[in-house]
Design goal:
The structure is a homodimer of 362-residue chains. Chain A has 362 residues and is an alpha/beta fold. The first copy, chain A, is built from ten helices and 17 strands. In chain A, strands 1, 10, 11, 12, 13, 14, 15, 16 and 17 form a nine-stranded mixed β-sheet that branches. Chain A has an eight-stranded parallel β-sheet with strand order 2-9-8-7-6-5-4-3. At the A-B interface, β10 and α9 of A face β10 and α9 of B.
Chain lengths: 362, 362
């Protein structure tokens, strides 16, 4: 089957670019003695998690237990659930998961840690704990000054096992000089945190960091020994805009078809927010919901669920039935909208993978 | 099972409100001799389509062939695909669909109509055609002055059958007086269109209109004899803001749990853009991604995929593990993110339905 024979909208993965992205990240982390534990929220597909592990990843990161369960079902043995597990139903599932895989969870409160401790007791297995520290994104994570006390309390639990600290550098983007400066500053902050822990006799086995826009400089965080980057497998408009990769590093495109040219000055494509999501591009001057590969001057300026509005006039205006390809703004959320993706080498479709962990919100 | 025992995030449907919404719309349309053909993009669930048909709907509207196929598989016999069918793969599926259900499609070009004509020929069945006219949303639809010529050409096709015209009144929102004035203006425009068609000897059997924010005034469009409203089954923040329904008419809520309170001045809930989508509220002064039922002064101001950021301070600040319920901004896109919904009467969960036509982008 040829790529052009796939009906639209469809998610296409260029396997050559994908393999190069996976290899490059693995080699970089290996060279700098950083354990790569990719976040699979980007792809949600067990076969791709296996590709990452075969290339050298030590395990994977997931956001939700439902994703962890899909990956464990597919034989992935080492899982970090980088999200606080709250509530009786989820703790039962965590215990069950721990019986069949090596599991670590990230959290930011002693209350959540106590639940994990009970789950570990029920499972009769160790469950690792990373304490999330707020690295400046003000999302989850304890304040740096509260980190030692919380780590100490968790280290005293009987069944859960304190493994270390989780940081996140998602805000570090920009040109190489800017990123290098920010990473060196972040290195100072992380070293300060770890020094304080060590003064308290707390020696973390794992210091976890991320993300894709600064993966190429992860070695600048001298004591961060694990990296959870995810987006690097596919890349997207955001990662290109963040300054660390090029358009040629984008492995995923969405194929769409022009279905209406009735209104002057625009065309309607058969992908809207149900195909692309409404996520805007970070750090971009324009409001387009993706880069149109055939003509990057065209803008996907507006969407309804099934209608994409592309401004287009004159000779540049695609015709009814024309096929276009878009590099999405934020690739992780796009993959989550689709039941399957098509893998191709050049023009030949070589496989179709279900997005097995799609929609696992719990 | 109690509602409070369902793990979060979860989509909850209050069956009493749902039934009242379905009944009210059906009675209103029956009273005014308007055929109700609800758009199932809102719910994507065959059992609910059957509830609508049992209440009096003449059939359903869908956006994509994939949705139509799911509904035909479930025994729905009369389908309007309110979207241009473009490309060989889709025309084959359209022919196949026409062999097992009564199918009408909406389109806005003769080129698309020719494809539908071939599909009808291949199926050996009539396929109805509505010509979409641009009612002012500038999405799909021919300009009013081009409508007669296109209808005439399509009426001359051998296998496709011209049934009439599709309009859309989604832009008509506001207080009752405003809506009434806008609907009367729209009535004049539609009458003008139809008069022009009739002068050309074209008598449409179907004149289709919508949407939920003006469903209660659909009788003001004197010659619109079919209504495609969809959102009325559940309603949402947008329909309440549009002025036509109240919070008590909102049948769908999303249950979430507080998973982090580590950062001062906010809480993190376990639903983000993968639960709610990033759709902003239309016509709302605030930027919240939903109305928090327990305390509508709280705002869901920001989301990552799995993290919802709710501003909350002082006594109003929910605690770790607390459960909150949100009425989403745009209910159709929220349902599309979830694999199943839970139906409840009062506090008792009475059923769980798969969202069978979820994610059907093709």
């Amino acid at each position: 089957m040829r790529v052009s024979e796939i009906d639209t909208p469809a998610v296409l993965i260029d396997v050559e670019i994908l393999e190069r992205n996976v290899r490059r990240a693995a080699e970089h982390c290996r060279k700098h003695h950083v354990a790569l534990r990719p976040h699979i929220k980007t792809h949600k597909m067990p076969p791709l998690a296996h590709v990452q592990i075969e290339a050298g990843a030590v395990g994977i990161s997931v956001a939700k237990l439902g994703e962890a369960e899909v990956m464990a079902d597919a034989g992935i043995q080492d899982l970090l659930v980088a999200y606080p597990i709250v509530g009786a139903a989820k703790l039962r599932r965590l215990a069950s998961l721990a019986e069949r895989a090596r599991v670590t969870v990230a959290l930011d409160s002693f209350e959540v840690a106590e639940g994990v401790d009970r789950a570990a007791r029920d499972a009769g297995r160790e469950i690792g704990v990373l304490v999330e520290v707020d690295s400046g994104t003000a999302r989850c994570g304890v304040a740096p000054e509260e980190l030692p006390a919380l780590c100490r309390r968790i280290a005293g639990l009987r069944h859960a096992r304190w493994h270390g600290v989780m940081t996140y550098q998602g805000y570090i983007t920009g040109d190489p000089e800017t990123r290098e400066r920010l990473m060196r500053e972040e290195n100072g902050r992380v070293n300060g945190l770890l020094d304080r822990l060590e003064r308290d006799g707390l020696r973390p086995k794992v210091v976890s960091g991320a993300s894709t826009p600064n993966l190429d400089l992860c070695q600048l965080l001298e004591r961060v020994n694990e990296n959870r980057s995810g987006t690097y497998v596919f890349n997207d408009r955001n990662t290109v805009n963040s300054g660390s990769v090029r358009w040629e590093d984008c492995a995923l495109r969405v194929a769409v078809t022009v279905v209406s040219t009735a209104v002057p000055g625009q065309i309607i494509i058969d992908g809207g927010s149900k195909t692309f999501t409404s996520d805007r591009a970070a750090g971009s001057a324009d409001a387009s919901f993706g880069r149109i590969v055939e003509d990057p001057t065209l803008q996907l300026v507006k969407m309804n669920e099934e209608h994409g509005f592309v401004q287009a006039e004159g000779a540049a205006r695609p015709k009814l039935g024309d096929r276009l390809h878009l590099i999405p703004n934020h690739v992780c959320v796009v993959v989550n909208m689709h039941d399957q993706v098509y893998l191709h080498r050049g023009d030949e479709v070589i496989d179709c993978w279900p997005v097995a962990a799609r929609g696992k919100v719990r």
